[in-house]
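## retry 2 of 3
previous attempt timed out at serialization; input unchanged, resubmitting
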Amino acid sequence: MKRRKWTVALGIYAAMLLCGCSLAVPGAETEDGTDRLIGVFITDEYLDLFDMDSFLQDHASRLIKANEIQIGKASGYEQKLYAVIDKKNSENISDWDISFGDVEGISFFAPCLQEESGEMVRLPVYSAGISDSNTNINVTDDGEKVSLQGTIYMVPGQMDKNIAYYMNPVYQTEDGRIYLTGGSGFSTSGESGEGVHSTTTLSGEIKLTENERATTEKSSVAVSYATMHRPVKITLYQMDGNHQCIKEQEYIPGTLPESMEMEPEAAYLLTETEKERLSGERFLIREVYDRREDDDNILKTWYDLGNGILAGQETTLEWK
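## retry succeeded, writing output
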């Protein structure tokens, strides 16, 4: 199957979170053998994991009538695509790389992994195509609730280029293996304004029995799809108290530095982002960043990953 090349490497870049996950803990078993939903893996092509050979072999001895096969009944013939964990010769879990072989896409899941010390850690695994991400873990005596939320920003009119996005559920077994199954797709077409157009949510729940105590683990993942016109140029103007420009800097989107020292006389920063519509028409978006010295002193810009998806880049503004 021909697969579109993504410029995003599957990466692990979020902080590790201690959790009440009972994965691999002796005595903790699911009541019905159900695996945990831990997130999704988003691809731009449908993953055909249906095992036709097993299906035909299983039914070769009898005549298959139309009313004998119902929708959803063939799901038992869907193969699981297991992830590969490359530890990179490191005991630090944050250095590990989790991928699905040669299948490329956007990772958005949070598995439970076991450190050398035996401590269970939930590690968010997000690719650059996931923006505005949020991981919420709530642990009580009754169990654990994990929710993931994120947004995919895409250039309008992607359907004109034969592009769709498929949200494939990712699960983790009781013994720690990670796998995905085929999911449903989403697409957009035509010129449109910027904003959120759709949100898809998956949820799962399993019952656990640990040391004769029953608990419930709930999980959900919500992915919003939003359109954003492609940025083509970013210009920064450092302005003084008299609204005069004292320094001008021009960047290609995605090339801004991690931090930027502001001029001593700078009172605020004016950003000018040139964007391009589907028709080729260009327009400007301007924003103002005031002098401040708190944790929110972040300039956020956007760039095209090369696959119709936009990623955010953050630059810390260092005021003198």
